[in-house]
Amino acid sequence: MPKVRRNVIANYAGNGWTALMSLAFIPLYIKLMGVESYGLVGFYTTLLSVFALLDLGISTTVQWHLARLSAEPEKAHEARNLVRTLELVYWGIALLIGAIMYLLAPWIANSYLQAEELSPEILENALTLIGLSIAVRWPFSFYSGGLIGLQKQELYNLVRAVIETLRGGGAVLILWLVSPTVHAFFAWQTIISLVGTVALGYTLWRSLPPAATKAQFEFSVLRNLWRFSAAVSAHTILVVAVTQIDKLMLSKLVTLELFAYYSLASTVASALYNLITPVATALYPRFIELVTLREEDRLSQIYHQGCQVMSALIAPTAIVLAFFSAEVLLLWTQNPLLVENAHLITSLLVLAKALESLQFLPGSLQTAHGMAWIKFGIYLSLVSLLALVPAIYFAAINYGLIGAAATMLVLHAIMTPVLIHVQHRRLLVGEKLRWYVEDVFMPFAAAMVAAMALRWALHSHDGHLAQPILFIYLGGTSVITLMAAAMATPCVRRHAFDFLKLRLKRAN
Questions:
Q1: pLDDT digits (tens, 9 = 90+) for 303-352
Q2: The pLDDT of residue 53
Q3: How many Cβ atoms sit within 10 Å of the Cβ of residue 497?
Q4: Which whole number is the average pLDDT over 27-52?
Q5: Largest Cα–Cα distance of the chain, in whole Å?
């Protein structure tokens, strides 16, 4: 099996399991700790994304350069020195994060968060644990970038799946058997984060090619890489800011309980990332290779195939979640009050994430072409952020959580066509219409028609369905919508028919 295909499969398995572990335990967290305490968990998740701003492009840099150096065995010592140098920088940033959270904990607890049941003292202690947890978890992304660059994605996803299982399952056991408090929850997060980081770091060093001399810190590595890392860092900072600014602002503008509803909806919407990152992670190094070799025809073929596969997965998932958000949340959480407050927000955020997801592979194609396109991404994200801040504030003050969610949807409805228009003026010129029609419209239209018909059938039924029947119905809806999108997508349909022909030929 080709390495790219193995990596895609490994990424889907790892992302799928991680998403399952993340989503499966949320209802238990809410049941054991309460909605307000879960709001603090949502704030913790937001902080993880915010502190990603301090990555400074290092994890992407180590991924890029290890992918190049791993193809040259004679440069094993250079690869190990690169990892040692950037590893020490990353752990230094981890210490900085811990110190920042320790210093800010009193202010956040007393002046920023709006808690009604949790006292400022409880919040301050919990925030200190949150800072420690984020600090020891921080280098995990560096080590994962290294393993991905070495094409060890199967090994990376195995370690990741084990750690995420222990993270979620262990937290539930701690809350159930020891103490149903935020302190117990975040103490466990700190322990398992440290275990995961150490395990993945050990795995990376074992996976690096052996060298005759010991790895050492080299200032020359930092001098040679700082421009690339700075550009990637600026882009990453702005992208994270655009995706997290709604939650950061709402955590200040609304109560912790209301923020919990928004966090829950955002968690559901963010599950779409687990459908797209496996493909994007596997294809990005391939894009770089083909750009370097100037094989534009092959690049175009793989680009459109990747976009179509992603749309065939995103469209049915997003549309089913958006159209049946109330039913999905009820089956998942068993909490009617939560469903009432979060289902419409979930629908809006899911559609926003679907549009954002369509930008992933075009963005990968652009950055594969170098610094000029990274700068374009910086400018586009900066303009988006400057527009978002006042828009979210106005929408949240006047229309509440729904207004903030709708603002995110409008943003991505504008950003996506702008990004595609600019790209196809310079890259893969003349293929913009193909992207809109074959890569996006066909799978999304088929999925929408199927989902609308099935939603009408569900709501035309008199009375409420029993939950087991509703579960089966939604499962069937998902399968039918997925099949409709797949059969409407040219490359997926072609591969499916080729596979069936091969099977029939072998059977005969």
A1: 998 899 889 999 999 999 999 998 889 888 888 888 888 899 999 999 99
A2: 67
A3: 11
A4: 82
A5: 75
Q: Yes or no: say if 3 and 308 are a contact pair by the CB < 8 Å rule.
A: no
232 Cβ contact list (under 8 Å, min separation 6)? 57, 60, 61, 374
What's the pLDDT at 336? Answer: 86
Across 260-270, b (16+ Cβ under 10 Å) vs e yields bbbbbbbbbbb
The model's pLDDT over 474-483, given as tens digits with 9 standing for 90+, comes to 889 989 999 9
pLDDT tens-place string over residues 237-295: 888 888 889 988 998 888 888 888 898 899 889 888 878 888 887 787 778 777 777 88
d(CA 404, CA 395): 6
Distance separating the N- and C-terminal Cα atoms of the chain: 25
SS (H, E, C) 393-432: HHHHHHHHHHHHHHHHHHHHHHHHHHHHHHHHHHCCCCCH
Q: Where are the domains of the chain?
A: 1-217, 298-508
Side-chain half-sphere CA neighbours of 127 within 13 A: 24
Residues 187 and 319: their CA atoms lie apart, in Å, by 38
Residue with tokens 């393993």: 147
The owner of tokens 């572990």 is 21
Write down how long the chain is: 508
